[in-house]
Every structure is written in structure tokens, then in C-alpha cells.
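Usage

Read records sequentially. Each one opens with the input sequence:
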Amino acid sequence: MIDLGRIFDIEGESLAFERQLDLSQVSQWGQRPFQSPVKVTGSVENRAGIVTLRCEASFVLTTICDRCLTQSDRPTVYRFEHVLARELNDEDNDDFIVVKDGLLDLDQLVTSDILLELPIKALCREDCKGLCPICGANLNETTCGCGKQSIDPRLQVLQDLLNNQN
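and closes with the structure output:
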């Protein structure tokens, strides 16, 4: 928890922070992608009565590729910015983070931000070719000799139609 009471009360006041988050127990894609601590740095500033939180989270994202099943470790940096308020007149406003009593649970906020930014699908690289559906060879590393012409038996009738037209 960070006490922001002084930041809210004094215009021009700021507070810098640096911390490490242990997200090793977080599960995503059936994996544990945070093998090392997440480094979080940032600041909270009151400028003209508007309190803004800016932070940067840097970590190594460890994933198993959804296409080729190889492990990849990718250095990742996410930047976040939030406007903070003590209270809101309109409770349905998602543009502000409400900080009741001036206490902000920074760890929870940053963890939520990181999890929302993670990709839906874990890939080792954007152009991953995946595995051969016949022999299972990693097509990023080799070209297999499997008959690429093999057709799903359910679609064989369509292939026969195409062959008869020629």
C-alpha cells in the first residue's frame, strides 16, 4: 500500500517508487509465465489538482508457444498511466482509479494492468510455422518429407471432384 494523502493535499507534490512484484504463482495459458520478479518503477504526481500515476513494469515473459511448443523467454516492458481520485460523483466512470482513504494498493493495480496486457495467444514469434500435423516436426527448424498433399479424409470427396474436372 502507498499512502497518497499528502499527494492529494499538496499541489505540485510527487512521489517516486520502485518495487519488485512476485507473480510466480500467477497462471496464464496453463503456464506460469513469470519465472523472475517483475520490476516496477514509476511516480505519482499532483499537477494542478490532477493526481496521475505513471509506471513501467519490466519482466521476462516465459511461455510455451501455442504453435510449435518451444519455450521462449521474451523481455517485456509495459507502461501504464492512471488518473487517481479520492471519490467520484459518477460511480460508473472507468476513467479514474478511486483511492479511498488515500491508500493505493499498487501491487494489485499493476498486477491487473499486466494481466490485461498479456497476449491472448502465446507465440515464440509472429511468423511461427508450428508443427507438421503428420509427423510433428517443428517447421521453424526443418522441412519434413511428409506428403503435404495428404488430405483430411473428410475432405477427400472434394479433392476427387477437383481431380475429375481436370
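Summary fields computed downstream for this record:
- The mean pLDDT is 84.
- The radius of gyration is 25 Å.
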